[in-house]
Amino acid sequence: MKKIALSLSIASTLFACTKTPTPCFSIDRGKPTKVNEEIQFDASCSNNASTFSWEFGDGTTGTGVAVKHKYTVDKMYIVRLTATNKRKTADITQELIIIK
């Protein structure tokens, strides 16, 4: 009986890794956000992903489910989250407006 439970657990894990990730993220501050304010980006709403890579639109990057970032110039940025599992990758973008 233990072998059956172990076998089912492994099969479930392998199946989850073959699904395409569904990335999503939230931003802790309302829009627009001010220059030099720390912003929390959170991708915990994503599904079927094990790693998270961020491009903040200002030439800097980050990794992890939740990251913090500050912008030093007021303008509109495109933030990209790339969610990856063992076999597939997917990404999503959001616009973020930074004001003075």
Look up the CATH topology: Immunoglobulin-like
**Superfamily at the CATH H level?**
Immunoglobulins
| Beginning-to-end CA distance, first to last residue | 64 Å
Helix count from the secondary structure assignment: 1
Largest sheet, order of strands side by side?
2-8-7-4-5
How many individual β-strands?
8
Question: What CATH architecture do you see?
Answer: Sandwich
Overall pLDDT: 86
The largest β sheet comes out as: 5 strands, mixed
Rg value = 17 Å
Query: What string gives the helices and strands in order?
Result: HEEEEEEEE
Low-confidence stretches: 1-16
- Which strand-content bin applies to the residues? 35-45%
Overall morphology: elongated
How many domains would you count in the coordinates? 1
What quaternary form is this? single chain
- Class from helix and strand fractions: alpha+beta
Give the helix level as a range of percent.
Answer: 10-25%
